[in-house]
Amino acid sequence: MSSEIETLKQFFAAINRNDMQTITKYFDPQIVRIEPEGFSTVGTYRGITEVQNHITEGRGSWAEGTCEPEKFLVNGDKVVVYLYAWVRLKEATDWSGGRFADGFVFRNSKIAQYITFWEREDALKWAGIEDEEAI
């Protein structure tokens, strides 16, 4: 899974530098993106163009900041990434953020599914992973 982890590192680096064209090279043509209730862009997005537009919209709300991977956990074709986001939204003076997790499924070395989880434990459960540090 080292190639998948490297892909995810590059994916988040592209998001952080607002390079929305580069992120598409990591996507399977049938990618599915799921963003849960509570996010401003809640929904299910399908295909490279729709997912790219969704991520572009979310990243476009940042005036500055980052979403940094903290840890990668793997189970088969699933990878959970612990993330720390710290951003200042456009037209805001205060910074906000926090810790959460994204889950990924890979197919042929490309991201086929991309799901955000508010709670890291929910991502671990989804992937069938036990993280000793999370308990």
CATH architecture: Roll
Largest sheet: spatial strand order = 2-1-6-5-4-3
Helix content percent band: 25-40%
CA-atom Rg in angstroms: 14 Å
CATH topology: Nuclear Transport Factor 2, Chain: A
> Would you tell me the structural class of the helices and strands?
alpha+beta
- Topology order in helix (H) and strand (E) letters: HEEHEEEEH
Q: Residue ranges: pLDDT <50 for 5 or more in a row? A: none
Q: What's the helix count?
A: 3
Keywords:
single chain, six-stranded mixed sheet, Nuclear Transport Factor 2, Chain: A, 3 helices, alpha+beta
Quick structural overview:
The relative contact order is 0.18. This protein has a 6-stranded mixed β-sheet with strand order 2-1-6-5-4-3. It has a single domain (2-124), classed as Nuclear Transport Factor 2, Chain: A (Roll).
Written account of the structure:
The chain has 135 residues and is of the alpha+beta class. It has a single domain (2-124), classed as Nuclear Transport Factor 2, Chain: A (Roll), CATH 3.10.450. It has three helices and six strands; from the N terminus they run H-E-E-H-E-E-E-E-H. The chain has helices at 2-16, 48-59, 120-127; strands spanning 27-35, 43-46, 62-75, 78-89, 96-107, 110-117. It has a six-stranded mixed β-sheet. A hairpin with a 7-residue loop joins strand 1 and strand 2.
